[in-house]
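Hi R.,

As promised, here are both runs. First protein below:
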Amino acid sequence: MAHPPIPLNALRAFEAAARHLSFTRAAQELCVTQAAVSHQVKALEARLGLTLFRRLPRGLALTDEGVALLAPVSDGFQRIGRMLERFEGGRLKEVLTVSVVGTFAAGWLLPRLQAFGEEHPFIDLRMLTNNNRVDLAAEGLDLAIRYGDGAWHGVEAEPLMDAPLTPLCSPELAARLGEPRDLLGQTLLRPYRGQDWLAWFEAAGLGAVAVRGPLFDSSWIMVEAAIQGLGVALAPAAMFRPALEAGRLVQPFAITTPGGRYWLTRLKSRTPSPAMQAFRDWALRETV
């Protein structure tokens, strides 16, 4: 004979009491009496044939069985809560998970996220950051914004914007730079693409030079080091406009080198969902 289902109220009373280790505080959270919480927990214990709490003079302690039950019950309520949030406005929100290279996320996407949300209120955007190393399938990503030449196996890549590279440094350090050759006496902060400084010096007419300095896997952190006066970074100026406009960062020379591009990517085998298509159209429109 099948047992009747366990009442949701009993599980809610147990979960709240377990978090607070108090029937009284659980009752306050649930807007019921302390006796009601105690009754629900006792009914749950009777239904399971287990003791979930040890009643102590100054509160409660979970038994081993209570500890084991708390995790799945708490997780279940959180998952229900997240799902209900997706129904706000009378329509199911579509989850969209996008991984974004950190420099582009901070320098371009974050200032525009509010506008995207207002334009697409039924997209539940989940944004992750990456250091340009992305596995769309393994990470369960819908889209990824990355930097490079767009040649990634099995990936559909659409260009968003060019990202020409140029030296960036603090105002104090910039005052010591009269011509590109002066950079040879400074600490050069190197991006993970080791050839970028060499390409810039070639563009500046200095030919092949020896480049030494700390290596960074994040352009955002590298430029922050430059702002703090630790050396000269080579990065896309367009991603650091607020710091340039505020005078915390200086572009000492107008010379740039092509570098790479930012690309919006998805698996070729993946049919775009409505949310993916909406984000793609918005991103391409905004980066024109």
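And here is the second one, sequence first, then its structure tokens:
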Amino acid sequence: MASILVCDDMRAICGVLEIALRKESHRVETVNSGAEAKRKLDSNIYDVVVSDIKMPQTDGIEVLRHARRVSPETAVILITAIEDYEAAVQALKAGAFDYIHKGPHLIDEVVVSINRALESVALHRENFAFKRDAGIRNSLENIVGASPVMDRLKQTIRIVASSASTVVIHGESGTGKELVARAMHACSPRAAEPFVSINCGAFPETLLESELFGYVKGAFTGATQNKAGLFEVASGGTVFLDEISEMSLAMQVKLLRVLQERVIRPVGGTAEIAIDVRLIAATNNDLDRMVADGAFREDLYYRISVIPIEVPPLRERREDIPVLANHFLKKFVAASGKSIVRIAPQSLRELQGYDWPGNVRQLENTIERAVALESSDELNVELPAERSKIRVAVMSGNGSIPTEGLDMGRYVADLERSMLQTALRQTGGVQTRAAELLRLSYRSFRHLAKKYDI
């Protein structure tokens, strides 16, 4: 059963087609003008449109073009009482599924054509679903980690992906915010369309505007031809604005207008261009604090924070460190052609004991460097900073302190924070049980949690 719209200025034709198609168990609506057909297409989804070509004012070709614009998956079959080879060619070039002459076998031909169109639409949807499912699997597999917090993050991505709402991803540098954005795009109905990424902190204000919105010839020195902006390039897809907090206040005003009006105006241009994109933003800064300090517009903050997502730092999911380290080991061993088969157990313990201020990116770089320097079949990893060795040494119980000394207050604070987070992970976030694990009163636990903003 399909949803079909029949458009013909001859009511008799609409009537006989409606009767015949209802006998085939299809849902059928009829209209008697091209303008009515366009209005129907704006507010309803049809599997097939059957339209006469020759109609006063708004003809079938215009209906076809409108359908291709607002509902690309809808198959359009054009019918005509006049045998016109040029009109047939024009219709097929414009994207018509079929072109039928109004002869004595019109009904049979329309029914056969509709059945073929439905098979084509079903095949297209099946192929799209297959590609989307493959994209979902591939994109989520790129987010490595099996900890509860990462499982929740992946589930959030699956749920949020189907929405058209704007998303802002919070997370420290190196946590993989762009991977999350790419996974969200791959899991969304926009997966077949472009994903365009830009780092807002990498461009000065004037250049960022032309990159996002494009420019026209002569807009500034060196603008020798028109150039489409990233919002236009990403039409139908997703725009990812990394480090949106680095955007100037003047650019924030322009971005807010784009999000509200869904149009852009190229630099130096006078005409506006309608856009259809989903915006995903990311930042490693505290936007709430920036709004309070007047460094980020409050109206833009609420516009982009429809769905906030938090990507946890690596130190809060230490159980994922061995998984990530082995993932990077395989990646770099394959590229280097070496025969390294495992990471030394002591190195794995040290990797898990390190705080990783640069998060996953820092871990990846560390493993890459270790693979490049390793000559045996077991990878020995040197940690990035001396203070990481201090922490591992003290935690292992040998009590060694370097001759140059250490910041005891910072070390104790890091250790307390880490123990609180570990206890909460082990108890599934139940604070009373976490307090019992640490032999603390609930009041003391709450005091420390507040102190370290946990």
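A quick note on the second one: The chain has 19 helices and 16 strands. Let me know what you think.

Best,
J.
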